[in-house]
Amino acid sequence: ISSPFFPPDSSWDAAYERELQTFQDIGDTGEIWFGEESMVRIIRWLEKHKVPLDSSVLDIGTGNGVLLVELAKSGYTNLTGIDYSLSAIRLSEKVREKEGMSNIKLKVEDFLAPSAELSGFDICIDKGTFDAVSLDPRDAVGKRKLYVGSLCRVLKPEGFFLITSCNWTKEELLNEFREGFEILEELPTPKFCFGGRIGNSVTALVFQRK
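Predicted structure:
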């Protein structure tokens, strides 16, 4: 399966290497997946539900790390970003330095095989990483199961999982995460109209680990 959103496995590093060079040249952090409104939506939910500012937050597939910077600016202090692309982590480190957010923790991790120290998080956030895993032509079904298993390991019981997806409907995501998670809320996302039918191009859900 191919998608204009997601490059094949081998080109993630190349894509982030280009963004890293651009950032070093002109200070542009690169693309914000799903746009700035997706970050605002997440932060508003955390604030609305009075999630404590010292809650441990994991950004799964952090990319350029901009979401973590925005969370830090909103007062959150216990932030970790992971990505399996070394170039992505190098880029997010540069962004972190530029913004003076030295307390953001960044590390190279494959979420499908997380290290033992990656555990005990109050909040996990995913903007597009589950989508990318789902599009992997090499055993996508098996990798989705690995993802759910990893999420159960790293997220505390009763912890929150906020996912933003452009590939899956609400019903499909409910099915994917039925083992170990329950839906709390669907967050409003932009609607589009095509052929007289109105739908959502992006789905954003909040789950709680059982």
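Summary: The chain has a mean pLDDT of 86.
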